[in-house]
Amino acid sequence: MAMVQLPDGTEVPALGQGTWRMGERGGDRRAQAAALRLGLDLGMTLIDTAEMYGEGGAEEVVAEAIAGRRDEVFLVSKVYPHNASRGRLPRALEASLKRLRVERLDLYLLHWRGGVPLAETVEAMQRARAEGKIARWGVSNLDVDDLEELGPALADCTTDQVLWNLEARGVEFDLLPFCAKHGMPVMAYSPIGQGGTLLRESTLEVIAARHDATPAQVALAFVLHRPGVIAIPKAADPAHVRENAAARALKLAVSDMKELDSAFPPPRRKRPLEMI
Ligand code: NAP
Predict the structure, then answer these.
(1) Does residue 199's CB lie within 6 angstroms of at least one atom of ligand 1?
(2) Are residues 242 and 180 in contact, defined by beta-carbon separation less than 8 angstroms?
(3) Which of 63, 88, 202, 273 could join 101 in a cystine, given CB atoms 3.0 to 4.6 angstroms apart?
(4) Interval 21-46: pLDDT, tens
């Protein structure tokens, strides 16, 4: 199984699991937890969640999924920008830990940049780590200029979680090379375009048919081909979970990549970071 090395040497699977839209009102939480457990069984042991998802509901689903198997899991959660201050971050973190029923997060991310100065958030993250509540910290939805603003703290930042899929390739111009240069892995969110129009695109269908695969697997193989990238597709349907896990075996040929490039042209100039 492909692994990605974090700056501190820890290895995590290149293919993990997302949880947005889980734990929302009216959703089947037991089925969602079962899907995540199936993903763990299939080696997708990095789970990404956030206090925002289902306003805490997704973290509760994750708690159910990882009960009794905490040691297998690399657990990531995120703090709302308005909670990312010196005073509020410790309380938000404590609430996440409580909902997740764990003592410590493996990684805690700033969900996106808000009004709190980055330096203050970094200080709060570092304090939480010193107290043993998180093992590492990172960011999400930060563009290159924001990362540069971190200054020396960039060396301490574990990852930047950003939108990256065939329909949103802007990060290939500068962000992915920047992170590679600094030895920082990137987490690709919405790697299959939220299961939308991308999966009905004809080039994907043709390439998928050639490999006896599905369009979603081609979309995942596209992001996974790049070293230092962790993809976190979300799937509550067990058939999707199995399909995504099997995408790790799909290796795209140079000719496949060329076809993808003509259907989804890579960026030729700087594009502002896209986010959902
Ligand atoms: P995604 O993973 O690209 O797509 C999820 C959607 O695709 C779901 O509707 C899912 O359906 C469907 N799906 C999953 N596997 C499939 C397959 N093999 N074939 C067909 N459809 C499939 O989108 P996402 O949830 O936006 O992104 C993934 C994760 O990234 C999130 O869950 C979250 O953890 C994280 N994220 C972070 C940010 C951020 O700002 N940091 C933003 C967005 C997302 P079922 O659920 O029915 O299986």
Answers:
(1) yes
(2) no
(3) 63
(4) 999 999 999 999 999 999 999 999 99
Pull the structure tokens for residue 68: 């009794």
**Rounded CA separation 242/249 (Å):** 12
Residue 168 covered by a domain:
yes
Q: How far is the CA of 151 from the centre of ligand 1 (A)?
A: 32
237 lines ligand 1 (CB under 6 A): yes
- Is residue 105 within 8 Å of 96, Cβ to Cβ? yes
Q: 240 CA to middle of ligand 1, Å?
A: 10
User: Looking at residue 49, which CATH number applies to its domain?
Assistant: 3.20.20.100
Total domains, the chain: 1
> How confident is the model over 77-119, as pLDDT tens digits?
999 999 999 999 999 999 999 999 999 999 999 999 999 999 9
Atom of ligand 1 nearest to the CA of 78: 41
Q: Determine the structural domain holding residue 84 and report its residue range.
A: 10-196+227-237
Most ligand 1 atoms within 8 A of CB, residue of 74, 78, 192 to mutate: 192
Question: Would you say the CB of residue 61 lies under 6 angstroms from ligand 1?
Answer: no
Residue 25 included in any domain: yes
273 in any annotated domain: no
Whether 256 is covered by a domain: the verdict is no
Query: 216 in ligand 1 pocket by Cβ < 6 Å?
Result: yes
